[in-house]
Amino acid sequence: MNSDFNLISELHNTTLVIKTEGYINNIGGEKIVQEFTKHGDVSKLILNLENSRVVNSIGISHLIEIIEKLNQTSGKLVFTNLDPTIEKTFSIMGLFQFADKAENVESALNN
Amino acid sequence: MLTSFQHIIRGSFILSDLNIYHKKQFESEWNFTHNGRLPDPSDISYFGNSGNRIIQYFQNEKYIASVVLPLADKSYLGILIGPKLGGSEFSDFDKITLQILLQVFDNAYKSFLNQKKEKELIFELNEKVVQLNNLVDTVIEISRFENRDQLFNIALERMSSLTNASSSSVQISRDGQQISVYTFPQNLKLTEIADSEYKIQSSFVHNNLTYNFTLAEKETRIGVSGFNELDKLLFNAIVRQVNASIENQYLNEQAIEKEKIEQELTVAASIQQRIIPEKLPSIEGYELAGINIPSREVGGDYFDCIDLGNGKFALIIADVAGKGIGAALLVSTLNAALYSYLQFDISPTEIADRLNKLIYKSSPSDKYITFFIAVLDSNSGTLDVVNAGHNPIFLLRKNGSLEKIDAGGVGLGMFDFGIPFKGQNTIMNSGDILFLYTDGIPEAMNTMEEEYSDEKMIDFFVLKSEKSAIEIVDELVQDVKVHSGKAPQSDDITMMILKKN
Lengths: 111, 501
Hints:
The structure holds 2 protein chains of 2 kinds. By secondary structure, chain A is an alpha/beta fold. Chain A is built from 4 helices and 5 strands, in the order E-E-H-E-H-E-H-E-H. The longest helix of chain A has 16 residues, at about 55-70. By secondary structure, chain B is an alpha+beta fold. Chain B is built from 9 helices and 21 strands. In chain B, strands 12, 13, 14, 15, 18 and 19 form a 6-stranded mixed β-sheet that branches. In chain B, strands 2-1-5-4-3 form a 5-stranded antiparallel β-sheet, with helices on one face. In chain B, helix 2 runs antiparallel to helix 3, helix 3 (about 150-165) runs antiparallel to helix 5 and helix 6 runs antiparallel to helix 7. The termini of chain B are far apart. The chains are: A alpha/beta, B alpha+beta. The interface of A and B includes residues 1 and 25 of A.
């Protein structure tokens, strides 16, 4: 089945910024993991979810996978531009115990 | 974990070669587990075909030992141990050390599986909390939306994310004809969802529109599957909430519309109150009494007695088809036009002709007025009358004979064929009574849906003819009320009695 998911990424030294668009489901989650894995030596991943309003638990499991990989290398994941519903979901799922959140990409880059 | 284990074994025995394999279950094929030079495929024959833990040692072979280790998740680890660097033998101490390392790995793997299981349980528990929380939020949000696009889009988003569905849709149709479609994701075609192998559907009908929701393909990390009972529960809960939201919106609109109609009726009632005379003129040598009791909905009854001067009076009774503000405005038009025409000395037939043209032009085709006018010369007792489609008017002579006055034509505003109205002349003598009324009297219903009837009305009128005009009016109204009992008044009750002394 077709997906509405797209992403673009930028690498700033070892900080990877990924901006997503669309449903973060299995396909969306896999694409984020692929993009993260592709860049190898990443110490900080900033995930800009400004254009993603919907996420399911399969998509979340991919994000947890990234968090675990980053934790193994003392790296960190920062979510930005979170929709309130997604923020609440991430909070309940415990993602913010191991990942940070920031209002926007700029503040995530500066911290 | 395997890489670490491999390093430990290789380091402990200082081996020249070490290959580790894994298979998911007993019947599965062995898979080589780490990168590097691929070993000879025939090497797996060293493992034999047993499901138990086996350690075999070989002399003068490519490998000095092979291990088959059954694991807690029913998978198997296969280890091929090459010769030690330097060529020394695999001693008894080495064999004991290998046994210990295998036990340590087995325990570590069990611990790893337990941790994994624990993580999965926590994930599932959190997922349930998210589902419950999002369901509550969704129900609240959906009940707030007045915009249908937002309502359907948010419902589809939420039902998809709560059930891990790949996509969802709602198809709205009337009599099998599709009116509109919403999908999530929005760029998806309905056929892609309809063609899905795994889907569940739920629908409801409101106001002749069928809303058919579809949820397609439950996602897992390894593909798609069918939906479980919890998914169906969540899906149906959201669909039911959308249904409730649409119904509430509809009822709200109905309430607003009702309020608007009630406001219109208030306006209509105030228009009518200004037109219906508070007091009728007194005519020397006659008794005149009249009444108008409007029904709950503002009706279109009208009556009046206009002093034309020189002892002449115009008695008018009329009934507009329909109720509400439209009827009230038409009565208002009739009243204004009548007062205008009656300023000139023109005959009732001419008045009826002019009114017919005016009403025909100024009202829709379903609106017309039944109208009766009698111009009385109080000095001579002559009556010049026209009945335009109204109920027959009765003239009860002193001797008891009852004359019906129905000459005239069709109701005002029904047609404009240019056919003149026919007039009628008669004379009222002492003791004669003229009875003008609208159909609200004979058609008054009781709770058994029985009409008061023309016969009963006429009989009562004749019976009470010895009484004064005002007494006849009051007692007839009372008799109609007794007949109606607890049944609501469905139409205006209007009448006038003119009695010559």
